[in-house]
Amino acid sequence: MSEDLLISDIHSLGQKDALDILARIARVEKKTFPSSEAWDFGADLWRKKPNTRVLYATNAPPSSRSKEPPVLIAYALYVRQKGTALLHKVCVAEPYRGQGVGQKLMNYIDERLRREGCQSIQLWVDRARAPARALYARSGFQEREVIDDYYAPGRAGIRMVLDLERG
Ligand SMILES: CC(C)(COP(=O)(O)OP(=O)(O)OC[C@H]1O[C@@H](n2cnc3c(N)ncnc32)[C@H](O)[C@@H]1OP(=O)(O)O)[C@@H](O)C(=O)NCCC(=O)NCCS
Question: Domain named N-acetyltransferase: which ranges (predicted)?
């Protein structure tokens, strides 16, 4: 299925479609993360946050005449701060995990940020999220710091960095 993946940015859409994608992302977000970690994918992300990028992946529409809306498969959110991008969220909807979608999304983010002149990507990940840590490690991220109880008592956070100027 990942050959048909279409990755884009909500800012490439008109307002109506962007708000529709954001609403669908918000539903997956709520299902996936505890409320303390769920990002607010509200309409203001489209309107007034120029440093914040929301990427989404859908299946390619079967044909332009199809009435079926494309399915939301994955999304990511990063914030640009000068030469660094803070990657706050990477998520693949549950039925599509383990099929290479996460890796494709990471490759897209890597290429796009390099093209935009970004020097490094930083993120925090829960030590217990093994699939996410494996995905980031495979994408070239290095673990730089561990903070105990970062997310909640007993839940450590790991800071990972990808240096885009190195390779
Ligand atoms: C983490 C996540 C994005 C991975 O996406 P995915 O599409 O399932 O990952 P891929 O299929 O592209 O796998 C890429 C690599 O990730 C690792 N991986 C993926 N699923 C894994 C699993 N269940 N267990 C261990 N490693 C796993 C592997 O290293 C895999 O490489 P492989 O192909 O050699 O096995 C997805 O599991 C997810 O959305 N999880 C819930 C949300 C989350 O934890 N997000 C990160 C914190 S914001």
Answer: 8-165
Six-digit token string for 151: 């997310």
Confidence of residue 63 (pLDDT cuts 50, 70, 90): low
Ligand 1 contacts (CB < 6 A) are: 32, 89-92, 97-103, 125, 129-132, 134-135, 138
Q: Which domain holds residue 57?
A: 2-118
Q: Do residues 132 and 116 make contact, with C-beta atoms less than 8 angstroms apart?
A: no
Q: How many folded domains does the chain comprise?
A: 1
Residue 56 lies in a domain: yes
Predicted pLDDT of residue 64: 59
Q: Each residue of 85-136: pLDDT tens digit?
A: 999 999 999 999 999 999 999 999 999 999 999 999 999 999 999 999 999 9
pLDDT attached to residue 49: 75
d(CA 18, CA 93): 18
Tell me, yes or no, whether 75 lies in a domain: yes
Q: 144: part of which helix (H) or strand (E)?
A: strand 142-152
Residue nearest to atom 23 of ligand 1 (CA): 131
Pocket test for ligand 1, best of 103, 124, 141, 158 (most atoms within 8 A of CB): 103
Q: Is residue 164 part of a domain?
A: no
